[in-house]
Structures are given as structure tokens and as C-alpha cells.
Specification:
The chain is α+β, with helices and mostly antiparallel strands and 98 residues long. The chain is 29% helix and 22% strand.
Amino acid sequence: MTRAVPVLPGNAKYVLLGADCRPYLSTMPGQLGGHRRGKLYGRLDCPAALRAIAAGGYVRHRVFFADEATAVTAGYRPCAACLPDAYRKWKNAYVRTR
């Protein structure tokens, strides 16, 4: 089964998620990938994400962000596997606010 690849208008080649969690077109690729259902973000070369993709999962809920600030503002958390320092800081702040 072949999936159709959408044609994006103008020079846009990428669809990124904004701070408002809405998709927008971009001429630049995202710097970070994320998982919509898990509300997490990480590096594009994240071993955990690559394993999930290779196993046939994850892709359907994959999103991309221009930068970390956008991902955080959109309510996503850092990945524990590929961003352990950022995850630890997030986790400590999350525990304190509960």
C-alpha cells in the first residue's frame, strides 16, 4: 500500500507544530521530533524513537518542532533517553509542582 505524499504550497517543504499545538508550513526542517500522544520531544536521532519507528509504531503520531522553546511552550516534555539532563530538570520541576 502506497501513501500519497501531500504537495505543500509555495516553498514550504515541512510541517511543524507551533507553540499553540497547531501545524504550520515551514521552509526549514524541524530541529526536534516529538510524539503527539506521549507529549514528549527529543532529538531526531533519538535511539528510543528510532527503535519505535523501526518496529512500525510512532510515525502516525510524530510531530516536529523548530526548537526546544516551541516544544516546551506547546506542553511537551523532554525525552528521558536522548535528553537526560533536560528530562531530569523537567522531572524535578514537575514533582515540585504536584
